[in-house]
Specification:
Rossmann fold, single chain, two-stranded antiparallel ribbon, binds S-adenosylmethionine
């Protein structure tokens, strides 16, 4: 029998009442903890340190998750405006936010519709989130709207490999991955998406990280919002 449960944070975010059956329980309670483990490995720390380097001012972070980037924000960051739908991830993030020195405010639940004014942020950040959001084009268009002209978008994503044999496996595994990992795709091309959204890509690094190749083709990039 489905259990009624609140999702959303008690700190002023919209609260939604949803029927929490087995699938809802997996998505809301189990998956954020699995993602926290999988994305919180030591091997990923240097990637996180690199992508957050040079962030400054007001930073919009899409898919804030359990706050695994918090320890890496440089001192020039004035405030991180976090968008994250999963209540369990926000709860996991709270101890990292308390332990960190940066100010973090949860401002929304969906990167496809961000409750911030136009041109009100200096930087955007996404780590392993463009793979998961339902419509990355909408998210990137929201980011462009909210970033000031000349503002920078920093991203770190896994995605489609340039090796045909790996890409073939990624396409095969994609339906299962999407089911098990709440919509996470193995086959998205972050650089192409960022360019299509109208950003100017300034810097890109791509290589295999540690781990099975279908999940390990990483892209780290910085793109600017044209003036
Ligand atoms: C693989 S996790 C990455 C979390 C975190 N960025 C990290 O690096 O550890 C993907 C995140 O995207 C979030 N997400 C899913 N749909 C979203 C949406 N529409 N808007 C914003 N975030 C979303 C998920 O809840 C999850 O926290």
């Amino acid at each position: 029998m489905p259990v009624k449960m609140f999702i959303g944070s008690p700190e002023g975010l919209e609260r939604r009442r949803i029927p929490l059956g087995a699938l809802g329980f997996y998505r809301e309670q189990v998956l954020p903890r699995l993602v926290d483990r999988a994305c919180g490995t030591r091997a990923l720390q240097h990637w996180r340190a690199e992508v957050t380097e040079d962030l400054s001012g007001r930073v919009l972070e899409i898919g804030f998750g359990s706050g695994l980037n918090v320890q890496h924000y440089p001192p020039q960051v004035e405030v991180v405006l976090a968008v994250e739908p999963a209540a369990a991830a926000r709860r996991l993030a709270s101890r990292r936010i308390e332990a960190g020195s940066a100010r973090v405010e949860h401002v929304g639940l969906d990167g496809q519709s961000v409750p911030l004014d136009d041109a009100s942020c200096d930087c955007g950040l996404s780590t392993f989130t463009l793979c998961t959001v339902p419509d990355p084009t909408k998210v990137l268009s929201e980011l462009r709207r909210v970033l000031r002209p000349g503002g920078r978008f920093h991203f770190l994503e896994h995605g489609i490999s340039p090796d045909p044999s790996v890409a073939k496996w990624q396409h095969r595994l994609d339906p299962l991955q999407r089911r098990l990992a709440d919509g996470c795709h193995l086959t998205r091309d972050a650089v192409a998406l960022v360019k299509q959204a109208g950003f100017v890509v300034e810097h890109v690094e791509q290589r295999y990280a540690k781990g099975p190749k279908p999940w390990s083709w990483f892209t780290l990039g910085v793109a600017s919002n044209p003036t």
